[in-house]
Amino acid sequence: METIIAMPLRGFFFCSFGILYLFFNSSFCPTTGYVLKNCLVTLNTQAICQKNSFKVFPKDIPARVTIIDLSQNRISILNKTPLANLSNLLRLDLRHNLISKIESGTFVVQMSLEVLIINNNMLCKLEEGMFDGLVNLTELSLTFNNIDTIAPASFKSLSKLRFLDLGHNKLRNLGNILHHTPHLQTLYITANHISTFHSWELSNKSTELVTLDLSKNELMAFRLTADIFPNLTSLNLEDGLKNGIVWEVNDTSYLSGVSKLDISAVRSSLHELQEVLGTINSSLRYLKLNHMNNNLQDLIDFSCKNPSLSSLEIRNNGIKVIGSDMLNLCTNLYLLDLGENEITKISDNSFQSLWQLKVLIIKSNQLTSVPYAIRNTGISTLDLSSNNINGLDCDDFANMTYLIILHLNNNPLLALNNCVSKDLVNLKILMLQNSRISHLNSTFKKDMPNLEVLTLFNNQLAVLDYGEFKALDNLQNLSLQGNKLEQLKNGTFFGLSSLTYLNLESNEITEIANGTFGDLKALKTLNLMSNHIIYESEEPIDYPPFAELSNLDTLLISSQRRHHRFNLPQNFLKGLKNLSVLNIKGNKLTSLHPLTFIDTPNLNKIDLSGNYLTDIPDNLFSPIQKLKSLYISHINLRSLDFLLHANFSELEFLQVGNNSFSVIREQVILSLSALNYLNMQGNSFTCNCDNAWFLKWVITNKQTQVFDAYNFECNYPPDLKGKKLLQIDVHSCTVDTDFICYISTACAVIMTIAVAFTHHFLQWHLVYGYYLMLAFLYNSKHKNKRAHQYDAFVSYNANDEGWVLGELLPKLEDEQGWRLCLHHRDFQPGKPIMENITDAIYGSRKTICVVSADYLESEWCSREIQVASFRLFDEQKDVLILVFLEDIPMQQLSPYYRMRRLLKRKTYLSWSRADAHPDLFWEKLRQALDTQEHPMGEHLRLTVEDGPTGERPDQ
Prior knowledge:
Layout: H1 2-28, E1 40-41, E2 46-48, E3 67-69, E4 77-78, E5 91-93, E6 101-102, E7 115-117, E8 125-126, E9 139-141, E10 149-150, E11 163-165, E12 186-188, E13 196-198, H2 199-202, E14 211-213, E15 221-224, E16 234-236, E17 246-249, E18 260-262, H3 270-280, E19 286-288, H4 296-304, E20 311-313, E21 321-322, E22 335-337, E23 345-346, E24 359-361, E25 381-383, E26 405-407, E27 429-431, E28 453-455, E29 477-479, E30 487-488, E31 501-503, E32 511-512, E33 525-527, E34 554-556, E35 581-583, E36 605-607, E37 629-631, E38 653-655, H5 666-670, E39 677-679, E40 684-686, H6 692-700, E41 705-707, E42 713-716, H7 737-761, H8 763-781, E43 790-795, H9 801-815, E44 820-821, H10 823-826, H11 833-842, E45 844-851, H12 853-857, H13 859-875, E46 880-884, H14 899-903, E47 908-910, H15 918-930
Parallel strand pairs: 2-3, 3-5, 4-6, 5-7, 7-9, 8-10, 9-11, 11-12, 12-14, 13-15, 14-16, 15-17, 16-18, 18-19, 19-20, 20-22, 21-23, 22-24, 24-25, 25-26, 26-27, 27-28, 28-29, 29-31, 30-32, 31-33, 33-34, 34-35, 35-36, 36-37, 37-38, 38-39, 39-41, 40-42, 43-44, 43-45, 45-46, 46-47
Antiparallel strand pairs: 1-2
Helix pairs in contact: 1-7, 3-4, 8-13, 11-13
Domain TIR: 788-929
Transmembrane segments: 12-36, 761-778
Protein name: Toll-like receptor 13
């Protein structure tokens, strides 16, 4: 019995100890919450960790992140430990670090990764196992490393790779690149040390390469001996053929698909270059001949004989004059790029033969006027930017009705001519920025009815006349930033009924006249940043400036430059019922009227940073129920309690850094149920019990990222000043409800295990103890009442009633004269059965238990023998007689029925063995009843036959 009980008990205690061990360890090592060191996780699961001087890959990035930018740090080694939790990663940017080693198996968990960028690091060798696990990688960039060797199986996992950039390394051959990347389409090997290209080094079978860049490699030989490039369309050999090239292409059909070729800066002979062009001639459409000092005209003539050539780029060739014969043979050109030369003159007939020309680029030259040669052409895009054109004449664009895009920016135009646009009826985009323009001269009061984009920023405009843009009824984007506008008059934007974007930033605007924006019914974005707008008080103004802009979505009015503080009139935003974004940053505001936002119920984002709003009215934000982003940094706030009254149930982004509050109340944070990002950078905190809840919340909450929380510093009390907030121990400040809940749960679990164990192994012991207690209570109650009413109480099962009434009762009562107590005859009606049992046992000198198999299964019989056993222990007298009607194996006897045998093996009578000597059985029973109640140990031994199971009673 001890062994049976001890093993479960030992397991129980080990289990209990294990639960408590886990509990206490977890309570002192809380699970890390949503706190990152110097990383910003955006709402679209992008972690921005650039420029933070990380020396190792950060370990606290949440598993849900799909994009990580760790560029411009100091990481030197990559291994799988910090990446083990980032299985959802799609893009990883590690450019501009110090990575010299990537351990094997680093990316085994990143099976979803699609883009990996390791540019500008210090890798010298690509080793086997370095990219294991990247089975879905499609783009790999390794440019600007020191790679000189690629191990044979480096790319064995990259079966889906489409883009590979190995530019600016130290490779001397192309081996092992395509062996495991069958679907590679773009390969950049720019600026390595490859002197010879052999096709067999890349592959001996057909590939899917579309773009191959071998530029800046100083190639001396190009040998293509097999048709491995059936899909190749772009081949770049720029700046590589210094001393001539051995060009061996066994079959011209091998490059029959190449449509774009770059042989810029090649120094080979004309014959060698013509050989290259001849190989690709049939399919060539785009040719780059930049930086060609010699043979340029011959190459142009040779190339333009190809009827498929449609785009020709001849930049940086020092061309000064475009003669009438230079492009005579290029009749099929669609695009001609003459940019970044030194052109001062273009012959009038230079483009006469280019009857298919649509795009003409002459940017960054030295033209002083619009060349006559462009007239009567069918070009749709013309770029004359960054020349020396100092004026426009009426006929400069004569007959250019097909022109759609015109770049005239970065020329010293000074002023426009109102007749210059007469034929630009289909123009949609006009770029005039950085052109020193001081007067528009009514240029946009007529013509150009289809213009959609007009850029006039960074000019010298000081005044805009009434209806200055009235002809531009299709204009959608107007950029006027960086001019010298001082006043916006009524009717300035008359006619701009389709305008959606207006930029007036960095002018000198001091006031907005009534009706200035009245014609801009479709306006979505208005930028008035960095002007000089002044309002004297918060009192309502007669003519709110935006009253008619009901469709405005974004209003930017930050950084008004003035010497005194700015006031915002109470009804300044009247009419902006659909406003979503408002930026009033850096305006030196000292207060805001409680009704400021009464007319903007749909605001989604507000930036009030950089003002002097020491206190914010409690009901200021009450009208805004849809706000998602709030920026209120650098405004000297002393409390965040105003958030309790704002009802920001949808607020996701809150930036309140560099303010004066030092305590954050629990109610404030809990009121922001949707908060995902909280920036309190630059605040100083009180490091005592006032912030205990906030400190715990920063560490444990799983929803809100508290940016830069590791660098929060204490300002009070003085002895903790300068210490980090997250290093403060505030366990003594709070009642840890989680701890209490954990204790309660642990106790409940332990109690459940204990009850289950007890019920399974100790059920009878408990029941026995219960009845022993009842008997004890009875004995204590009746200890002075010792008169015995009966000689013996007979405990038996109803199924044995026949033997009791037919054999036992006649012998003991009729023949021997004993007075017996039988439950069916002598129990008092109406009294509780247990009380009857207890009274009967203690009211009799002896208890006779008639034991049979049925008796052992009876609950009430069990209780009777338990009470009798207690009396046996309590009185230490021989008061219990066991009569076995049948042989019962020992293993079937419960510990309670074996109790007397375990204590004193005596007075066992067996009826089943009395067949031969029944008179002896009755005599022994008479003697047992007749025996006086001697103390146990001075009793008369009566049992001479074997016990109930065949064992000797004294064994």
